Amino acid sequence: MLNKFLNTKTLVILLIIVLGIYFLSDMFENEDRTFRSDLVSIDTAEITKIVIVPKIGGGDEISLIRTGSSWDLKSAGKSYKSDGAVIKNVLARLSLLKPERVAATNRSKWKGFEVTDSTSTRVKLYVGDKVGTEIYIGKFSYTQPPQGQGQMQQRQQQGKMSTHVRLAGEDEVYVVDGFLKMEIQANVDAYRDKTLVAVNNNDLTKLTFKYPDNDNFTLSLENNKWVINGMEADSANTAKYLQKLSKVTSNSFIDNINAVGSTPSHYVKFEGKNMLPVEIKAFPIMDTINKFVVTTSRIPDAKFSGGKNNLFENIFPVKEDLVKK
To answer: What is the DSSP letter of 59?
Structure first.
């Protein structure tokens, strides 16, 4: 009788344990189902506008508006020529945002993770005229690689970069991989076209230069050889200069600096096959850092610093360097 009672008691205990395991697994399964696998569920091809709102005091709102296959860039009442490749990278980055873990589940943690309206960078993704998704980009964190390893292992091992984000209308704060504020910047210049000239060297046939003191010259391709004003050019130095023209870029915009006078001190016009002519001008300024305001016909609304990153020297060569010795 006692054995029968113990067996019955054991069965009851086992039944309780089994039921407990069932309810616990069901609870965790439900929790897993509610954990987001993606933060942006919109097809990027459907996005019609991206609005980037910097944190308070961080600058002006930026609007990227899709027009056919291109994007219009606007900020603070001004329009700029945009860099389509940069915007494409932003869309790709957003489409790949995946939560690695939940950092908080209530509003009391928002300020610490910098995902409030005033501390975050907000990104609004529009489909048509409506906001489809709004993301709050917050605090960045960096985790050092494991210590106590050999020097070679430490050099090979990289630290972990993470960003805290939140979706509008939700309390949860998620952690995603990477330094998101660096990849999606709240600075209009990050989305502007920065290419002054980009040509295929094999397409160039003529470059016309106008320098101070009427020191003008033409570098032209004749019978597969480059000549300066009809005289043979130095092939090595000419090839080196033309190679730089494959893509000349600058992110040193100086839109608020005015040139001294309306006549450029230096001018060059690039002409060739399969390309529109490109004209670049340099205007001297009373500034020892920028030295020149440089403009290009590719981006009429932009002014660049001629003194930073050797922009002026890369575009306007010294005539004597191109002449065959």
So the answer is: -
